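User: Fold both of these, please.

Assistant: Here is the first one.
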Amino acid sequence: MPTTASTSHSFATFLTLATALFVSTLALHPRTLNAADKSHAHGTDSMPNAATPCGTVTGHEPLSSKVFPCTKRRCSLHVPAQSHSKNQATLIVFQDGHTFINQLGDFRVPVVFDNLITKAAMPVTIAVMIDPSHKGELPDKRGWKPTPANRSVEYDTVSSDCADFLLTDVFEQSTLTNRLWPIDTWSKYCHIKMTATN
């Protein structure tokens, strides 16, 4: 009879080999987990509806940064038609903003939000859609070509930089080269207090 220790060791070895085999199999068949292979049909909430009040979408560029110096990015703001200063609104921020703003794309945030808010299926929500940044001048169009040079630094670095960027460069008017809203307007519409760490 093998001992408990040897049995545990054998199981651990088996598990390690099985995991390695699984990972190598994925490497040999990269299409296995490719979501693009499956078609996705958009539902009615992703389609424009003439009976739905449309929110306002505005674009802002170039949005520079003190947290990420020498970078520029584009940003869009969607404010639903039901948003009023006397009513509380929810705030949501989308990174890779250009993938969400396209009203004929995969996500169609302005269309979906307008439809769901009108049906009271979600709260009144203001959406900020921010692109990852480029170093130097911005390309002519939003998107992945060329690849945003500073994306991995902004999104993958384990620090408070990304949160500080949102607080100090996006929501505080003092550091915006092209202001979305003054800080008192954010507070008025979203009923939130903006603070940033030093």
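And the second sequence with its predicted structure:
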Amino acid sequence: MTDLDRAIDTNDQAVQLTALDHPKKAICLSNLGCALQTLFDKTRLMDDLDRLIETIEQAVQLTPPDHDNRAGVLNNLGNALRIQFHMTGSIDNLNRAIETYEQTVQLTPSNHPELAGMLNNLGRALQMRFKRTGSMDDLENSIAAYEHGATSDTAAPSIRLDASQACAHLLISQGMLKRKTNS
């Protein structure tokens, strides 16, 4: 048995042994979700992704709306749904990911250091939907999410740079960023 198998088994046992109404049940599910994410990253099997999504959805359901961890759990769910979109091509999965990311951003305080990363995830998902549907609203909202992430005062510089680069690439790809010339 590998360390990952042990981690999954241990977290699964914690979930099974924790009563549904126990305040730590959502955290146990979230921890299991993290282990399942690592498993999926290794296997790339749809069954592993489905179990991951089901586990994180349960964690979201059990996390109170005002709990500090709710945005992070929602962000993890959005990431899994976005991966599911990549694997299936189903726009419904992408729509769910975007809705989840929007909730994540709404729940996260404007001065939170992880907000920029969450905005980047939202921007990426909106950009994917724009590429699929051609919705100008998605294009504009993607650009706005990237810009907001790039200008965050509390985010790590690497996250701000990622947002800036993603925004620049999107603007260039749409012919919306022109090089200024001295005339």
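Residues 25-43 form the longest helix (19 residues).
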